[in-house]
Amino acid sequence: MFFMKTEPDILGEVEGAPSDVPHAPSPRVARAAIDVPESTGYRLKTKILGPPLHTEQLAHERLGIPTALAVFSSDCISSSAYATEQILTHLIPIIGLMAFSLVVPITIALLVVLFFLIMSYRETIKEYPTAGGAYMVTRDNFGLLPAQVAGVSLLTDYVLTVAVSTAAGTDALTSAVRALAPFHVVIALSFIALLAFGNLKGVKESGKLFAAPTYFFIAMMGLLIVTGIVKWIGGDLRAQDITHLHGIVKIGTHGVENELLYGAGLFVVLKAFASGGAAVTGVEAISNGVTAFRRPEWVNARKTLIIMGATLGVLFLGLSILSTKTHPIPYSTGSPTVISQVGKGVFGGGAAGHGLFYLLQAGTMLILVLAANTSFADFPRLASFHAGDHFMPKQLTKRGHRLVFSNGILFLAAAAAVLLVATSAEVDRLIPLYAIGVFTSFTMSQSGMAKHHLTHKEPGWRKGIFVNGTGAVLSLIVDVIILITKFTSGAWVVCLLVPIMVFGLTRLNRQYEAEAHELEEDAPRAAESPILSRHVVLVLVDRLDLASARAIQYARSMVPDELRAVHFVIDADRAAVLSEEWGRLGLSRLPLELVDTPDRRLARAAVELCAETLADGDTEVSLLLPRIVHARAWHRLLHDRSADAIAAAVADLPHANVTFVPYHLGSQHRRDELTRSSSSKAGRRSSSVSDRIASHGVEEGITPDQVPEGATPISAAVVRQRVRVAGRIRALRVQPWAGVATLECTVVDPTGSLLIVFLGRKHVAGISTGAKIVVEGMVGDHNGRPAILNPTYRIIAGAEEPAPTHGSGH
After folding, report:
1. Which of 372-386, 460-474, 753-767, 781-795 has the least mean pLDDT?
2. 631 Cβ partners below 8 Å, 6+ apart?
3. Residue 585 DSSP code
4. Tell me, what's the pLDDT at 648?
5. What DSSP designation does 197 have?
6. Nearest alpha carbon to residue 272 among 424, 422, 118, 98
7. CB 134 within 8 A of CB 158
8. Mind listing the pLDDT tens digit for each residue in 607-625?
9. Rounded Cα–Cα distance for residues 277 and 111 (Å)
């Protein structure tokens, strides 16, 4: 208490008022900054991904409309590159060249579905601006279990999006460079690795990386469509000669009318419609990532959604129209692709034509590969929502090194890679799995929005019901068509996988809920229950070494009523040697208890020992287990893990507590080096105080213009002197001072830490962890720590908002 007992004395010490109480020597700040050595893995991660981003920088990682269009729309827009091909792939083998008379009507039908989906998701973004899309809408309107169906459908679709996009992108590459065809799977896997790396570097970095290819593809497609229409009007656009093509799909000879008469024609058309439905997947991506937009998030998200839908509609319809004039034929191997054949037909020969063709293929390859970035942007976010609701592992809620959900990114990359290997990266084998999941989530999302409008009846709710109701009906129709026409082609896998995954997530949820209930039940009563009258500490000693010595040292610091070292005797000779060394080294003041263990069951012996000690009902037992921590993983294989078995067995006893006391083998020289380094740096600080002002401003996120003149590095603050320091609030706590609730804040800069105290306050406006603050006042000493009581302060930047606020502690 600053060496005083009463509040007047405290104030006298802090403000320099006279006091009869002797003062300790005026020390510099006791808590100097320590350079803790980083692990090799962390240094490597920092070198590859860049320095870690502070949580407060998350607001600055938001996306504007141009970058967001590239990040969230690449999946949807890129579908235009292969949707027309998927329609033709199912029509041409049955009805031959008559397929080109149906491709445009099917495209228009799909664009009608797209229009209502765009309008529906505009409503979703407005009503649910906190992101989550189908998952959040279904959860709020139908409950958690239906939400898992919607969420799992989307998560499955995101994995398939990565696989389909990278496989299709590889097809575009091999269409231009035929020599790369044998390395199809390897190239696709390399694309996934590149995408994962880009996203691990952070949202803004991935947006910048993927923006240029997206806009380049849009520009090349626009050039293709405009050039094709001009040539068509001029009569220069002709169908290609298919008589000399090898490797194309079988061309059917039946007419449409004949097939329709036998009933097969309708099924074939619906099957083509279902395959082309891949073009409208990805629409939900923006609604799942609303929080990544700059403020106002929902307004910018809706604008981006409209731009995305219009762009996709123009590109998809334009390519389908051009295909009716150039007659591209799908190949059984996937390449050359339909879009590449249309490109050759439109741009023609010559150097300029070939150049434009290769630019189109480059743009197509890049947009298809980078379309998977939509999944990398949304899958981790959606998985974090599931995990936050206790339906997926908690690791998926954690932001990583660069403020992204790293675990979700790595899981997505691994799952997509396995899928690519299993299907040999063939788009035709992946498409049947592709659209059913997303249209299931579309149906549930739009049904949920219709219910939301009906329940809340907000202004314009009738229009909302019409839009979302129509979207739900159309999505359901498409979903049923896909299920029927694609069931035997692979859709059954998704139909089987989704219920299994939902069952697994619900089981995981029950486990989390059971754990939470057990941990929370009677927690206040247990924390406030009276302590037992005796505390006995038992240290298990196998041999007399540094690990055991460290455990004994820690046991002494606990100041128990009784402290005993215990050795379970398995080898009598070894026990005799230990006992002799114990006495020879002068440890007789700490009793060594030898416990006979003839059956060599160490865990049972430990339980019996603790149970005997607990038998009186008034004793708390702490069992300390020395643990050697090895520097390398393979070293652990050389030693047993009997301590884990002992801990597991003793943990079931009431009032028995197990603590591992680690000793890091081989790290003593590093600790010695750390001590020497800290000492030398402390010496250097005293000679370079003025130089630290600028550096601590940069390192702690305070710009030089925000640091006031006369500010002092915390390491240079002296007790009983008035100082002005600038730093970041690292920790907050409320605790009583002489019975008065008091807010204590730890302020840090790269040179050290300082305690600021607001006496009689539990909360102070603007004071929160992570906030940047300038503090001025008289330095006192509190339990060996420098502290300022009721300082004058100024908030430079809050933990969340950059807007400055001002205040005073007086």
Report:
1. 372-386
2. 664, 665, 666, 667
3. T
4. 86
5. H
6. 98
7. no
8. 988 988 888 888 999 999 9
9. 10
**139-144 long-range contacts, Cβ below 8 Å, gap at least 24?**
139/389, 140/448, 140/452, 141/447, 141/448, 141/449, 141/451, 141/452, 141/455, 142/444, 142/447, 142/448, 142/451, 144/389, 144/391, 144/509
Q: Which two tokens stand for residue 285?
A: 């991506």
CA–CA distances in Å: residue 311 to residues 80, 164, 353, 692: 10, 21, 25, 53
DSSP state of 489: I
Q: Distance between CA 6 and CA 695 in Å, rounded?
A: 39
Give CA 57 to chain center in angstroms.
15
Instruction: Choose among 88, 26, 141: nearest CA to 332.
Output: 88
How far, in Å, CA of 251 to CA of 55, rounded? 58
User: How confident is residue 16, by pLDDT bands cut at 50, 70 and 90?
Assistant: very low
Torsion angle, CA of 148/150/156/161, rounded to 10 degrees? -150
Helix and strand tally (H, E) in the chain?
26, 12
> Residue 644 has what pLDDT?
82
The total of other beta-carbon atoms located within 10 Å of residue 369's CB is: 29
How far is it, in rounded angstroms, from Cα 420 to Cα 488? 20
Q: Please give the single-letter amino acid code of residue 136.
A: M
Question: What pLDDT, on a 0 to 100 scale, did the predictor assign at position 8?
Answer: 35
pLDDT at 360: 93
Collapsed DSSP state (helix, strand, coil) of residue 802: coil
Q: Which of 791, 736, 721 is nearest to 23 (CA)?
A: 721
Question: In sequence order, what are the beta bridge partners of 754?
Answer: 747
Choose among 41, 111, 37: nearest CA to 79: 111
698 has pLDDT over 80:
no
The predicted structure's pLDDT at residue 263: 42
Structure tokens that stand for 50 in this block: 């860049």
**Quick check: 108 and 324 in contact, CB under 8 A?**
no
Cα–Cα distance, 44 to 173 (Å, whole number): 32
Structure tokens at 708: 């006031």
Contact 368, 188 (CB under 8 A): no
CA–CA distance, 565 with 552 (Å, rounded to integer): 8
- The pTM assigned to this predicted structure is 0.63
Q: Give the CA distances from residue 213 to residues 15, 34, 74, in Å, rounded to whole numbers and listed in that order.
A: 63, 45, 9
Please tell me what DSSP assigns to residue 617. Answer: S
CA dist 474 → 68, 301, 468 (Å): 27, 23, 10
Across 789-806, b (16+ Cβ under 10 Å) vs e yields bbbebbbbbbbeeeeeee
- Among 535, 547, 599, 597, smallest CA distance to 572 is for 597
pLDDT category at 53 given cuts 50, 70, 90 is low
pLDDT at residue 512 is higher than 60: yes
d(CA 154, CA 501): 12
Q: For the chain, state the CA radius of gyration.
A: 34
Alpha-carbon torsion angle 469, 475, 478, 484, nearest 10: -100
Higher pLDDT, 502 or 218: 218
Q: Which two tokens stand for residue 444?
A: 């549930």
Whether the Cβ atoms of residue 63 and residue 71 lie closer than 8 Å to each other = yes
Angle at 153 between CA 147 and CA 157, to 5 degrees: 145
Compute CA 137 distance to the chain's CA centroid, rounded to the nearest angstrom.
Answer: 21
Beta-carbon neighbour count of residue 523 at 10 Å? 9
Give whole-number Cα distances, 624 to 595, 597, 648, 664, 726, in Å. 16, 19, 13, 16, 42
